[in-house]
Design a protein that fits this description.
Helices cover 6% and strands 45% of the residues. It is mainly beta and 154 residues long. It contains 1 helix and 8 strands; from the N terminus they run E-E-E-E-H-E-E-E-E. The protein has one helix at residues 80-88; strands at 26-34, 39-46, 50-58, 63-71, 93-101, 109-114, 119-126, 135-145. The longest helix is centred in the middle third of the chain and has 9 residues, at 80-88. It starts with 25 loop residues before the first strand and ends in a 9-residue tail after the last strand. The strands form 2 sheets. Strands 1-8-3-6 form a 4-stranded antiparallel β-sheet, with no helix packed on it. A 4-stranded antiparallel β-sheet has the order 2-7-4-5, covered by helices on one side. It has one domain (27-145): GOLD domain (Jelly Rolls, Sandwich).
């Protein structure tokens, strides 16, 4: 089989990465451990109209999951206290309500969010309900620049 010529050189390009993800996506695959009685957070900076998709499984048992979005104020967050104040004032949008998910060791949980403005998406893996077991989470986050389409009606 002949090697494909890259698109920049006039050849065809494949619109998928090796893992089946879109070629223009930034894909992050990680394993995280959440100790018993604790929670872990992943902060994701998003630009306006950017799409993030997530997928995760635990290595066993259940886990709590939530996602919240906080728009970035003009000039950004000065520090962690300013970020926390924005959350306390109610400018945070609940993307996914904290829910204890069972059987995520057998079936992956997936979701997505498109940022309507620049801001931070905080994904929380909550294990505060567990007295004895820590949880290992295998997750994937994929970031894409969104293409917004407008339909004109006549």
């Amino acid at each position: 089989m002949a090697a494909a010529t890259p698109g920049a050189a006039g050849g065809k390009t494949d619109d998928k990465q090796a893992g089946g993800d879109p070629a223009d996506a930034i894909v992050e695959r990680k394993t995280a451990n959440v100790s018993n009685g604790k929670s872990g957070k992943k902060l994701i900076q998003l630009e306006r109209a950017q799409l993030v998709e997530w997928e995760f499984k635990t290595a066993g048992y259940d886990i709590g999951f939530a996602a919240h979005f906080t728009p970035t104020p003009p000039g950004g967050f000065a520090n962690a206290a300013a970020r926390q104040a924005a959350t306390a004032t109610g400018s945070t949008e609940e993307v996914f309500t904290l829910t204890r998910l069972a059987n995520v060791d057998k079936v992956a949980t997936q979701g997505s969010f498109v940022a309507h403005t620049a801001g931070e998406l905080v994904i929380t893996f909550d294990n505060t309900h567990s007295t004895w077991r820590s949880k290992t989470i295998n997750y994937k986050c994929m970031y894409l620049a969104c293409v917004l389409l407008f339909v004109m009606r006549s």
